[in-house]
Design a protein that fits this description.
about 180 residues, OB fold (Dihydrolipoamide Acetyltransferase, E2P), five-stranded antiparallel beta sheet, alpha+beta
Length: about 180
């Protein structure tokens, strides 16, 4: 077999890989993010984003869920701020993306001092006499949980299926009615 014939299948695979990889680059560009900004949003190194876009490696399951949520948010019109990025928070951007992916409205960041908010739907409430566990699905298959007082669960009206926000402040997750 000549070298030309044996490399033809490899070129075909490389073209398919590059075609798939360009979809990721287009998503990033639709969001208005550089590779390093996209990496900060996803919690990976910029080289990792570059490798995904070139088809050298693939995101893991968790990263694919986040990328799907970013895609849905891009479809809903989310864009990174244009111009100087001073004060831009990748975590707040991800929170807004997850909220939009779940069909929620843009988050009003003026109500609380915590800016890391993730809107979603309550998928589990394990009630106790004093404390209860609340789990909020912030993107398909991506969940955050918190243990809060049972009084707070009742006051907020948190039941399975209700809208809620997981609000991250330092190492704590605060649940607020969404």
């Amino acid at each position: 077999m000549s070298p030309t014939n044996s490399s033809a299948p490899l070129r075909k695979v490389a073209r398919k890989t590059l075609a798939k990889a360009s979809i990721d680059a287009r998503l990033r560009e639709r969001l208005g993010l550089s590779q390093s900004e996209c990496a900060a949003v996803l919690g990976v190194h910029a080289m990792t984003v570059s490798k995904w876009e070139r088809g050298v490696s693939k995101p893991n399951e968790h990263q694919r869920l986040l990328l799907r949520a970013l895609g849905a948010a891009a479809e809903a019109g989310l864009r990174a701020p244009v111009g100087a990025r001073r004060g831009w928070s990748p975590v707040a951007f991800l929170g807004e993306a997850l909220a939009l992916a779940q069909g929620g409205a843009r988050i009003d960041l003026g109500a609380l001092s915590a800016t890391n908010r993730f809107a979603g739907k309550v998928v589990e409430v394990a009630r106790g006499d004093v404390m209860s566990k609340v789990v909020v699905e912030i993107a398909p298959g991506l969940r955050m949980g918190a243990v809060i007082t049972t009084d707070s669960v009742d006051r907020l009206g948190l039941v399975v299926g209700s809208r809620a926000q997981a609000i991250v402040k330092a190492t704590e997750v605060i649940v607020g009615k969404g």
